[in-house]
Fold this protein.
Amino acid sequence: MNRFNLPDLGEGLPDAEIVEWLVAEGDTVKVDDPIVSMETAKAVVEVPSPYAGKVAKFHGQAGDVIKTGAPLIDFETGDGAGENESAAEDNGEGEQVASEQEPAPQAVEPADDDAGQTGDERADTGTVVGNVTTSDEVVRQTHSSVGGVKVTPAVRALARKLKVDLAGVEATGPEGVVTSSDVRKAAEHGPTRKPAAEQTEHRPAEREPPMHEARSPAVRPAESDRKVEAASGEWAPIRGTRRTMARAMSESHARVVATTIMDDADIHAWQPGEDITVRLLRSLWAGAQSEPGLNAWYDDQQNMRMIHKSMHVGMAVDTADGLFVARLKDVHSSDRQQMRGEINRLRDNAKNRSIPPEDLKDYTIMLSNFGVFAGRYATPIINPPCVAIVAAGVLRHEVVPVLGGMEAHRTLPLSLTFDHRVCTGGEAARFLKAMIQDLSKSQ
Amino acid sequence: MAEITLVEAVTLALAHEMNVDPTVVVFGEDVGVNGGVFRATAGLQQTFGDERVLDTPLAEVMIAGMCVGMASQGMKPVAEAQFEGFMYPMVDHIVNHAARLRHRTRGRMNCPVVFRAPWGGGIHAPEHHSDSNEATWAHFPGVRTVIPSSPSRAYGLLLAAIRDPDPVVFLEPKRIYRWQREDVEDNGEELPLDVCFVLRDGTDVTLVTWGAMVKETMEAAGELEKNGVSAEVIDVATVAPIDMETIIESVEKTGRCVIVHEAPKHCGVGGEIAASLAEKAIWHLKAPIKRVTGYDTIMPLYRSEMNYMPSTERIVHAAQETLEFE
C-alpha cells in the first residue's frame, strides 16, 4: 500500500479542500494522471498521481478540508520494489520512527542507595555533602472536586494553563477522574460535556480552525451560549475562496499599519478609446519610478525589505465566490497590447477557476479597479508582504475652473493605501502625484 | 510506572528528553563519571556518551557561558550547578545574556537553556550549600524560575523547562530529594509552567508555598483539619512569573492567606505575593496576610538550621492568628 499525503500545493497554506475526485476507488491510474481537483488558496488545482497502480482508498470526499501532510489517497501498486520504497517514505513522516525506536535504556535508572553494597564499602547516601533524608514512603496525588468534576492538581493546573473550564470537560479516567488528555481535547474542540446549565442547540462551523490562535478556547462556550433571539438565518461554514479571503484579510488587519491617501486624476486629455486598466498599470510603474519604496516587500519577521526592480501587479478580481488577487507579470516592460493580453488571460482563467498557482503570488504591488460598479474612494487592504495598493473608483465628471470659465472634465478617483511601517507619507504622496501626472497625459 | 524519588524523577526526565531530542546536552561539575553531587545525572554519561554528558572544570562562569552560546545556536543545554550557592558566578550570563537574548534581537534569537541546581536548606550542609535564593532569579525579567515539590512535578516540570524556548532556572529542593516516592510514568508528558498547583482544597484559609516547604505546609493543613479548620494548599511551582489568578481565586474564597517560604522574609517572593493580593484582592481579605519565612540573617550552620526554617507549628500558629483576627 502506498499512501499519498497532501503536499503543499504551492501556497504555503495549511490545508486544501477537495472539489472533486477525478478517479474512483478501484480505478487503475498511471503516474501523472490527474486524480483529484483541490481548491487551494484561490484556485482549483489538479493533483497528478505520484504512483502507477490501483486506487485503494480516498481519505476524504468532495467538500472535505484536508490538512497539508495528512493522508489524501492510498494506492495499491502491486510492485514489490515500490512497496518497500513507499514504506521507507512513510517512515519519514515521524510517527513510525518514534514507535520503532528502542525503548529508553534501563541503564539510566538511578543507582539505588543500597545497590551492590559489600560489607566494607561506604553506603552511597546520595550526596557528598550533608545528609539527605531518605524514605520509601509512597505518596499519591489526591483528587479534588472542582465544579463537580474530580481532578488531580496536575490536571487542574493544565486546565488553568489552557484556560479550560473544568465544568465543561467530560471525564474519561477511572472513577470519573478528568485526565490531562480530556483537558487537551476540551481546549482544542471546546466543551466536551454539557454544563449544568442548558446548552444551546448550535455552534457554527466547528471544523474550522479559529482565525486567530490567540483567541482563547475558553471564550468559545461563552460566545456560543449567547442566545440570539432575533436570528432567522442558518449558520453555515465559510469555505473555499471566501475562507481564504477571511484569513488573508484578518492577517493583513493584524499586521499592516495601513494609511490611505486619496486624490483625483484629471483624464480630460485622454484620446477616445483609452484602456483604463492599462493606463492605471502604466501609471503604477510611473509612481514606482518616482518612489521605488512602494513597489516593495516587507518581511516583518526578519525586519527586512526588498525594493523591486521590476513590477508585477496583483490585481483584485471579484467573483461570486470571493476575491482573487491575480498577478499581471512584467508590467514594467510591457506595452499596451501585452498588458491587455495579460489582463484578458487572467480574467478568463478566473472565470474558469483555473488560475495556475504561480499566478496567485509574487506580485510586488496591488491594484483594485472597483469603480466599474460604484464607489468613489476606498481604504483598500494590502496583502503582506506587499506594502502598497491603489484602488480606482468610478469615473465622474467634475467641474473644473479653467482660464476664462468652467469645464466639465472626466476625473478618476484614486485611493492609495500604504504600509506606514516601511513607507513614509511623503513617499506615498509623491508616488500618487507621479501616477496622476502619468494618467493626465493624453496617451 | 515506577515508584521513584524526586531526584530520580529528575534523572528520568533528563534521560527521556535526551532520548527524543538529540540537541539536549547535559554538563556541569562531576555530572558525568560521578553522576552528580546528588546523583541527579547518574548513568546518563554511560547511556548517552561523553559528548552529550560532559564533566566541566570547576568554573561556573564558563558553564553558564557555554549554555548561552550553545542555546543561541540551536542546542538545548541543561547545566547543573552543584548547589544554589554556586550559581552566583553565573549571574552575568543568565541575567545579562540568556534572559535578554530574545529581547535584544527583537525575537530573532532565543535561548532555550535550563540552569538546574539543588536548592534550599535542611540537609546539614556547610556554608553556601543551604540558601533559598529563588527571589534573586524571580526578580529578573526574561528568565523563568521553577521549583518542583514532588517526583511527578519534578518530572513534568523539568520536561517543560527543557522544551521551553526561553531560559529556565530550575531549583530542586534537595531536602526532599529522597523524602517520598511516587508512581511516575515515563510518558514524556510535561506539566504546565506558569501555573500554580492546588494540592488541597479548603474554605477557611489559603496556605501558599513552594519547594520543600510543601512538606511542612501540608502537615500544617492536616493539623488544622484536626481543629476543624479547612486549609487550601497551593504549590506555586513557577515563582516567576507567578500565577496570581489561582491564588486570588482561592483567597476570594477563604479570605485569609498565609505564605510560607524558607528564604528570608525581606524582599522574598512572599512579599511579592502579599503585595499583589493587597493590590487585587484586598476587599476579600478578612484578616491581614501572614508570612512564615526564614529570618533576615545568614542561613545558620546545621546545628541551628531547623530553628531557622519554618516549622509545622509556626505555620499552624500563623493560620490560627488569621482565623482569630477580629
Residues 291 and 430 of chain A are 7 Å apart (CA to CA). The interface with chain B takes residues 98, 101, 104-105, 107-111, 113, 124, 126-142, 144-146, 153-154, 156-158, 160-162, 180, 302-303 of chain A (CB under 8 Å). Residues 80-120, 197-227 of chain A have pLDDT under 50 and may be disordered.
